[in-house]
Amino acid sequence: NGAAATATATAAGDGETAPVPRSLAPARKVALITGITGQDGSYLTELLLSKGYEVHGLIRRSSNFNTQRLDHIYHDPHAVPSSPRPPMRLHYADLSDSSSLRRALDAISPDEVYNLAAQSHVAVSFEIPDYTADVTATGALRLLEAVRLSRKPIRYYQAGSSEMFGSTPPPQSEDTPFHPRSPYAAAKVAAHWYTVNYREAYGIFACNGVLFNHESPRRGENFVTRKITRAVGRIKVGLQTKVFLGNLSAARDWGFAGDYVEAMWLMLQQDQPADYVVATEESHTVEEFLQAAFGYAGLNWKDHVVIDKKYFRPAEVDSLKGDSTKARRVLKWKPKVGFQQLVEMMVDHDIELAKKEKVLVDAGYRDPKQQP
Ligand code: NDP
Ligand code: GDR
């Protein structure tokens, strides 16, 4: 809980709303990331730190520490008291609380803001539509307003989604009309247009990244790819036998999250702000993902998958496949990790994770029925 401890210490102790003393720090770009505790937030933090940035992240209050994806990055200043201020710092704020966003921007005075925070689960957005709109749509508006009122010009990145295309058939590019199919997607469309509007109305350097699905070993465990690779790992070591899934025929353009955060950064380094589709341009069904993941582990998915109606959505996005010509031409971006390599990376990781879980189960420290 190292990184969580920092946030706690920062919030309780040294008053993170006070201006950060820039003069003491070497001159380097300053970035603020919302959603830093998520999958993309952790990869983007690594990328920006490797480029010499000072990185600040907003985290929301939770009854449990939830900074696991950042713990390997965080250096506890209490452990080595004489070491310089750590290049990553966490601050409590919430996209539903505009005053917290204003205070954070005042204190941090970033050069770049990456808005990755969202209620990001499509199926869950049908259960909590009002909350999803508040955080995913109005949250982006609150942050844009804080950026507009900031003392210095800030470059702003908005995490848009291929879900915005919804039922519009592939291939989907920057010119493809949106037809959202969930409260989540509708909220992302609103955030997209708020971003365009703030660019046009106030001249803010604001970009929408319309990113297609991207996965990794750090993907949340209730998204379908990670749910599958977690199940493969646990089945392989004997911790479970079945996995319950919904619609297997939906097709997605799945890339690697580590590649996609690079595109986010590139968008903010251009001379002019613009919107970009980021995709592998290859599409696979959920069933193909199952085949690849179980097959790689020497298993037959048909022996283990049970269809459960509760995982079907009231409205589905059937087929996504991006056309990222513009990002490849202007940003000189292209994905490095292909579909099979992504699947293998995730399965390898989750088999190792399951082996560790098994040690705990065998020692009586963990309930084997406790599934992710
Ligand atoms: P995750 O679900 O892993 O992370 C979401 C982040 O948002 C978490 O850090 C979460 O904090 C934070 N968050 C949620 N609600 C609030 C709130 N009210 N205030 C502040 N922070 C909040 O998402 P990903 O990393 O996968 O995705 C990053 C962004 O990109 C999201 O906006 C997502 O919708 C979008 N996107 C993702 C794609 C993908 O394939 N991964 C594709 C296209 C777009 P906590 O840890 O406390 O829950
Ligand atoms: P998605 O990702 O909705 O594309 O949104 P998810 O992995 O949740 O679903 C992909 C497809 O798999 C089908 N599916 C299941 N999905 C889940 N979660 N659980 C299941 O058991 C299951 N069975 C089948 C779904 O119906 C769907 O067709 C992700 C999120 O990261 C968004 O934030 C992001 O904007 C988009 O990707 C691009």
Summarize the entry for a quick read.
The chain has 372 residues and is α/β, with parallel strands linked by helices. 40% of the residues lie in helices and 13% in strands.
Written account of the structure:
The structure is a single chain. The chain has 372 residues and is α/β, with parallel strands linked by helices. The protein is built from eleven helices and 13 strands. The chain has helices spanning 2-14, 39-50, 98-108, 122-127, 129-148, 183-202, 224-236, 257-267, 286-296, 325-331, 339-362; strands at residues 30-34, 54-59, 88-92, 112-115, 155-161, 206-211, 214-215, 243-245, 251-252, 255-256, 276-278, 284-285, 305-307. The strands form four sheets. Strands 3-2-1-4-5-6-11 form a seven-stranded parallel β-sheet, with helices on both faces. A two-stranded parallel sheet has the order 7-10. Strands 8-13 form a two-stranded parallel sheet. The two termini are 20 Å apart. Mean pLDDT is 92; it is low at 1-16. Bound molecules: NADPH dihydro-nicotinamide-adenine-dinucleotide phosphate and guanosine-5'-diphosphate-rhamnose. Guanosine-5'-diphosphate-rhamnose binds next to helix 4 and helix 7.
Q: Which strand-content bin applies to the residues? A: 5-15%
Specify the structural class: alpha/beta
Mean pLDDT comes to 92
Helix content: 25-40%
Adjacency order of strands in the biggest sheet: 3-2-1-4-5-6-11
Reported for the largest beta sheet, the result is: 7 strands, parallel
Q: How many angstroms does the end-to-end distance come to?
A: 20 Å
Q: Round the Cα radius of gyration to an integer and report it.
A: 21 Å
The topology string of helices and strands comes to HEHEEHEHHEHEEHEEEHEEHEHH
Number of strands: 13
| Silhouette | globular
Sequence stretches where pLDDT stays below 50 over 5 or more residues: 1-16
